[in-house]
Amino acid sequence: xxxxxxxxxxxxxxxxxxxxxxxxxxxxxxxxxxxxxxxxxxxxxxxxxxxxxxxxxxxxxxxxxxxxxxxxxxxxxxxxxxxxxxxxxxxxxxxxxxxxxxxxxxxxxxxxxxxxxxxxxxxxxxxxxxxxxxxxxxxxxxxxxxxxxxxxxxxxxxxxxxxxxxxxxxxxxxxxxxxxxxxxxxxxxxxxxxxxxxxxxxxxxxxxxxxxxxxxxxxxxxxxxxxxxxxxxxxxxxxxxxxxxxxxxxxxxxxxxxxxxxxxxxxxxxxxxxxxxxxxx
Length: 281
Known about the structure:
This protein has helices at 44-47, 162-165, and strands at residues 3-7, 10-11, 33-40, 54-60, 71-81, 86-96, 100-111, 114-116, 121-123, 128-142, 145-157, 159-160, 169-189, 197-215, 221-242, 245-266, 269-274. The protein has 281 residues and is mainly beta. The strands form 3 sheets. Strands 5, 6, 7, 10, 11, 12, 13, 14, 15, 16 and 17 form an 11-stranded antiparallel sheet that branches. It is globular, with a radius of gyration of 22 Å. The two termini are 18 Å apart.
């Protein structure tokens, strides 16, 4: 949680991110990624103390304006791996003219259990299903202003934590894990060297994670749910005061609202307990 992950400059991290290696970057559909920027080492100057270990900024694909009145397009992608390790389908549509550009798509993934090399064999359980949808719209308001609207949805069902299943749990699954992101960005260009480009962004990010746990030789099933709604506002300024000097500055504010609950079921009895995090924090 001290490596900051961002999507189009918007924080993916929130107040409930797990320490150490975690699964959150995996909730970004690879088919929407255009490029990834990586800061190796402390990025705290720009992004704050939770970027002490570094930063990753995932930049998603942009729809392109066309020089014709209207241009439409569509695409299909498929992927299949042997040993039932992966079955993927992706469909997308594009629509554009001189002032409007739209790109949207839907992805389905069915991941089977991983088959390791040498003596590892099939690692069971490691498979899960995933659904993802995305849409991005760009509008030229005038010669110097552009409005960008984007939405992303990702849902993963019955995702096992293999490290837990092989070390004392008969079941330790994320079911489901859902991520949603929507943002609105106004990008403006000016002749002023101190305000060469200014971007104002409002965003809503939701993380909905349910964990189902059952230890070996136990009838007790635990269900934990953490729902985090994150509201964000950011102003970013790019300045070019001279040919050899450029810098970036700005202000951002994020507010996390955490809802957390826990249920324990043993036989026919279900007990409601305090969640993993303080509910309403």
